[in-house]
Amino acid sequence: MKEIALGILAALFFAVTFVLNHSMELEGGSWLWSSSLRYFFMLPFLLIIVFSRKGWKPLTFEIKSQPTKWLLWSFVGFGLFYAPLTYAASFGPGWLVSGTWQFTIVAGVLLAPLFVTVIDGVNVRQRIPILSLIISFVILIGIFLIQIPQAQTLSFKTFILGILPVLIAAFAYPLGNRKMMEVCGGRLDTYQRVLGMTIASLPIWICLAIYALMTVGLPSGNQVFQSFIVGISSGVIATTLFFIATDRSREDQGKLAAVEATQSTEVLFAIMGEMLLLGIPLPTPIALIGIVVIILGMLLHSYHTMLVAKKSVLKEKEAELQS
């Protein structure tokens, strides 16, 4: 339950991304700057945290020992995650981007067979947790209900360009996150892993920044400030909270799916944020039903996680008694 609470708190800070990215696009800011500036602002804060915790040497050792994997999965987990999200903000409002992003709930569950767990010295390929997948689809139905009223007012081009990049990001984020957990093998803490992935993904952001400078010029002062807020809120606070939650759940695919499902609450936070800051109208009755469905799905995930945890404790006690 603590992991789910951390996931929901992370979703609150993640929602800042969708609201402010849309705000920057409305003001004429380029998605190239929105994506690259976030990671530039994240870097110094993460460096301070890791250095203060004396975690720099272990991190550099890990990166030097497996540089190719760090570059690859950081590109997937950060590059193919955030660049498509900011690009999609150029074609769709925050609610559409954050709503489509929730496909990551299902994507995370479907990725299970790509990972192997060692049990008694034997590599066992993980299976898709069917019950978690069913509950994830319940949440996804709620997401669709939220999107239906607004989607009817969008052009086909806007609808597609606001969706396809986000679907790529929806698979890339959990894949990169889980693969990096596998690479690190518990040897690094969350702050070290986020910093390492930020450093390893810097070539992408530097290239995007150079391209932005050549094509659209320097960002406005307001875009720099809003990107700074996104970098701290979403890049440092939200990412760290979410990675802590997934780190604690990485041995249990059902529990991990429940943590990843907490990101569905981003839609609720994004709607409230856009209503307050950008003046969007109240959700329609259909959208409100969708919100209720999302909350129901979250409760089901929490209940399922609690049952799994209880069964695990009982099995451990039985094993102790038998021994």
UniProtKB/TrEMBL annotation:
Keywords: Membrane, Transmembrane, Transmembrane helix. InterPro entries: EmrE. It comes from the Bacteria. It comes from Lysinibacillus halotolerans. The chain crosses the membrane at residues 31-50, 70-89, 95-116, 128-148, 154-173, 194-218, 224-245, 286-309. This is Multidrug resistance efflux transporter family protein.
